[in-house]
Amino acid sequence: MTYRPAEEAFAPPWAIRAPSFVHAGVAVAVVLVVILGESSPSGSWLFSYIVEQDPVRAISARALAIVLIVSATASMIRTSMRGVRVRPDGVEYRDLVSWAIPRVRRFKWAQIDRVILDQKDLALDLWDGSRAYLPPVSDRDGLAATLEKIALARAIPVRGGGKLDEIPDSADYPEEG
I need a labelling partner for 157 at 20 to 30 A (CA). Which of 24, 51, 132, 139 fits? Predict the structure, then answer.
């Protein structure tokens, strides 16, 4: 029976997730301003800007707030779907080709000839001679350690690993006698 690891997921780094968080923050701020404007006294500047000037605009303040909240939620969901997932049957990664075109690639353990860990981007050499680069993740070292552990358990060669072999050399121990 072959080694089947537990499923682990590795999210994209904060630099990739930051724009969607900023978008969500702006959306929440607009919603708060609309709520404050609608509940402020009728003579205030904010009430005048949000409520009284709404009929002149192409899109109302409420509609703008709703559109921003929906798009921020979609952005957060889309960003959270990116990353690498190590599954019992192989490796799966999700990335975006452009703003709306996702890329999902799945590699079974039998397809992987070698795991490359000594480059900036982690890579998998495949049985057909091609190399698949994994997208950046927030915990690169954790993903590298997981891939190395699984590769060693499944007898897949590893290039540039952290040397998980914890058996010390005999030269490290003084001779008894």
Answer: 139
Total domain count, the chain:
2
The residue written with tokens 């969901």 in the block is: 77
Cα separation of 69 and 82, whole Å?
21
Same domain, 90 and 150: yes
Residue 57 lies in a domain: yes
DSSP secondary structure code for residue 98 in this structure: S
The edge-to-edge listing of strands for the beta sheet with 158-159 is 131-133, 123-126, 112-116, 158-159
Contact criterion met (CB below 8 Å) for 20 and 78: yes
Helical residues (DSSP H) of 4-121, grouped into ranges:
14-39, 45-47, 61-80
Q: By residue range, what is the domain housing residue 114? A: 8-12+84-159
Together in a domain, 76 and 90: no
Return the structure tokens found at 153. Answer: 């358990």
pLDDT per residue, tens digit, the chain (177 aa), is 567 788 899 999 999 899 999 999 999 999 999 999 999 998 899 999 998 888 888 999 999 999 999 999 999 988 888 899 999 999 999 888 777 778 899 999 999 999 999 888 899 999 999 999 999 999 999 999 999 999 988 889 999 876 665 444 555 545 555
